[in-house]
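Box 3.1 A note on notation
Throughout this textbook, protein chains are presented in two layers. The first layer is the amino acid sequence; the second is a token string describing backbone geometry. Keep the layers aligned when reading.
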Amino acid sequence: MVLAPLTPEVRQYLLVTGNYWAFTLTDGALRMLVVLHFYSLGYSGLSIAMLFLFYEIFGVITNLVGGWLGARIGLNKTMNIGLFLQIIALSMLLLPADYLIVPWVMAAQALSGVAKDLNKMSAKSSIKMLVATAAQGTLFKWVALLTGSKNALKGIGFFIGGLLLTVIGFQLAILSMAIMLLLVWLLSVVNLKQDLGKSSTKPKFREMLSKSRAINVLSAARMLLFGARDVWFVIALPLFLASQFGWDHWTVGGFLALWVIGYGVVQSSTPLLLGKNNIPNSFMVTLWALLLCVIPALIALAMTFNWQLEFALLGGLLLFGAVFAINSAIHSYLIVSYAKSDGVSMDVGFYYMANAMGRLLGTVLSGWLYQTAGIIACLWVSSAMLILTVFISTLLPATKPAAAETAIDNGNN
């Protein structure tokens, strides 16, 4: 009844966003629960990274196949399938600690990876269907809000994960999240539009790979962008904070939660920060990637010379998060804008397949580099990957996406 006065498009947007938010809370909490719980059990950084190996590998596969599947059966179905698979993944971790052997946890994480990327691909693709082609200002705002709020909630999920692990323990934390997500899934099955994002034709399986040069270049840049973030953020940073600064689970989870929340807030605010007439383009992608590549290098230099260690790392991390958030918001808008409307999920799925490949690369490198060479090596590799991102970004077409040639539709803002 609360949604009744709203337009059908806004109601669907709110349903998609609420679905995505609920999923993201459990995904962030699960990530922190697994990292901290298994670290407390004596697992090394590389071993913990391996727990997420299938999570990232299956994310790559899911985005590619999921985009094709969404175009054939509808994004409502792929979104609800993702929610249900996450419930199963959480349930797999309810076994007693003695039975949570590495292959079983990796299998649960693999299922969670499938679930996460089905849900994300569906949510991002749905926005394209709910905004008029000419209203690129509205599209930018809606994409930034969806993506930024998701990341803020992922940060809250980190915080919840650390808190629940401290207060009620691993198994009860997992159980509470599974029950919450089950209720959201039931609501989504009943209310989400049935034909959302369904292609007017039945795309063939061989059509999964993008034929657009702009999308291919943007996807390559996205892969390196997220690899550069995760190579030091996912495994190396929380373990460094715990082992070198002596932070407990609560403190690590709380700090990383605040970082991701701030990152999400900046991401949501990017349209405002850039100005209402600054629709993202290829120059903007390159400029912000160039600004970002300097930050991990400066942190690495400060740590090498032992200059204000905590200030350099934590302050640098905050600056990195703000600039990275703007980069990510620009990317997220461009892929939705570049994507063709009919079967949008195929282009978006291909792009987020590259995103998942970057996370996979970053996660594995984070665990391996931290264990063999330390966090400073992770930072130098991050900077190198961002320099490559800059060069690849220069290959994007100079003109705006075709859909963005028209002025902002102020009537929908």
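Confidence is low (pLDDT under 50) at residues 401-413. The domain at 8-197+206-401 is CATH 1.20.1250.20 (Growth Hormone; Chain: A;).
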